[in-house]
Design brief:
single chain; alpha/beta; Nucleotidyltransferase, domain 5; 2 domains; five-stranded mixed beta sheet; 43% helix; binds 5'-O-[(R)-(carboxyoxy)(hydroxy)phosphoryl]adenosine; binds zinc ion
């Protein structure tokens, strides 16, 4: 079967086409991302209405590129286009008028591709952005009569790990760390989840981004801080010139929750005391920020791995692209829980993409919904 996946939960427009053989083998026919990173750099972050506009602009061209890459883009057989269909599509895209203008000529020009299922992220995420993907999926489902499954973005971050490794053993503990979320999830099996802990304020990725912004390092913060921190020891370990010691919020609490908003405030105060902000200072501050975040993520996650005797530890989300985080997690597991296996997606699949949505759609292919029923839900929970 061929699955078309649509992901627009934040600022990346992701379209993927995944073929799954009868024996369950995955082959990726296309996985294309239109990134809004340049806009984020210009404005210093993601703004929902601006991101929505970009999704509207990018989604159709990204879809066409994916169809081309998968060799599924075929010219239309007939030019007949009933007015009633035009009216219905206009209604679906009531709040995406720019997309509506482009989609009718597209439907006239190309025929229905060989796609069996549409998988679309319906939450959690930025509501206006989610709706672009959902309404686009609805149009395709309605016009071409292709079934559609809504999928949870957090679950997609977990299940993308199955692309390269289907023998993940359960129960697993999954840490999903992104710009919008920080959750520790108990995975009893695919489809059965329990959130054990989560952030009470900012997400870990958001903390990277905000710290980078207030240190004047630029956007996106996670990548910039990790690059600056490469090969540098965190000053709180006693090395380096700077005497920066950041707090590790909630590291010793008995629950599995996090809090990252205090860290940026601590960075702000520490930074005010420094007169000369040379490259060395920026590197050491970056290493300290990164290590403070890593310390709490590892401490709390390891606690759940032990408490639930997890057979696997599965990372996901943009922050899991962080090489230092992965390295330290692996070392800790080997030392303290050597029978627990470690999984993390390759960095390009840690951050948002359509392929993760396709994989989640495959595992929920029975959860087909009538396109009229599907709604975006910015606060969708995994359990
Ligand atoms: O999963 P994602 O692409 O989008 C959301 O669903 O939020 O995650 C984006 C987040 C951003 O906050 C970004 O700074 C962070 O992931 N990130 C990183 C790294 N690469 C991306 N954080 C730390 N180290 C990285 N290498
Ligand atoms: Zn994400």
């Amino acid at each position: 079967m061929k699955i078309l996946a649509i992901e627009t939960s934040c600022d990346d427009t992701g379209i993927a086409i995944l073929e799954v053989s009868k024996t369950g083998n995955f082959s990726v026919l296309a996985n294309i991302i239109a990134s809004q990173i340049e806009i984020g750099k210009k404005y210093g972050g993601v703004y929902p209405m601006m991101a929505k506009r970009e999704h509207q602009k990018n989604i159709l061209p990204t879809f066409i590129s994916a169809l081309k890459e998968a060799n599924l883009l075929k010219p239309a057989q007939s030019v007949f286009f009933p007015t009633a269909k035009n009216t219905d599509i206009e209604k679906i895209l009531e709040r995406e008028p720019e997309l509506f203008k482009k989609i009718i000529p597209f439907f006239k020009k190309f025929s229905k591709p060989d796609i069996d299922l549409i998988s679309v992220t319906n939450g959690p995420g930025l509501e206006p952005c989610l709706w672009v993907g959902v309404n686009f999926a609805k149009c395709l489902s309605y016009f071409w009569n292709i079934p559609i499954v809504p999928v949870n973005h957090i679950e997609s971050h977990i299940l993308v790990n199955l692309l390269e490794n289907k023998n993940i053993k359960f129960p697993a503990i999954s840490l999903v760390v992104s710009g919008g979320h920080t959750q520790i999830i108990l995975v009893e099996k695919i489809g059965k989840y329990k959130i054990l802990g989560e952030t009470r304020d900012d997400a870990a990725g958001e903390c990277f981004d905000k710290c980078a912004k207030l240190l004047g390092l630029g956007y996106p913060g996670g990548q910039i801080i990790s690059k600056l921190a490469e090969g540098i020891k965190a000053p709180s370990t006693g090395s380096g010139q700077a005497k920066i010691i950041l707090p590790r919020p909630m590291i010793n609490t008995k629950d599995y929750d996090f809090s990252f908003s205090g860290l940026k405030t601590a960075v702000l105060y520490a930074d005010r005391k420094v007169k000369i902000k040379n490259k060395k200072y920026k590197q050491e501050m970056s290493a300290e920020v990164q290590q403070a975040i890593i310390d709490v993520l590892i401490k709390k996650t390891m606690k759940t791995v032990k408490d639930f005797d997890a057979k696997s530890l599965v990372l996901g989300g943009g922050v899991s692209a962080n090489q230092e985080l992965r390295k330290q997690f692996k070392n800790k597991l080997e030392k303290e829980m050597p029978n627990t296996k470690f999984f993390a997606p390759k960095p390009a699949l840690s951050t948002d993409n359509g392929l993760m949505t396709a994989i989640a759609g495959f595992y929920h292919k029975k959860n087909i919904k009538n396109w009229q029923e599907i709604k975006a839900d910015s606060n969708l929970r995994i359990n």
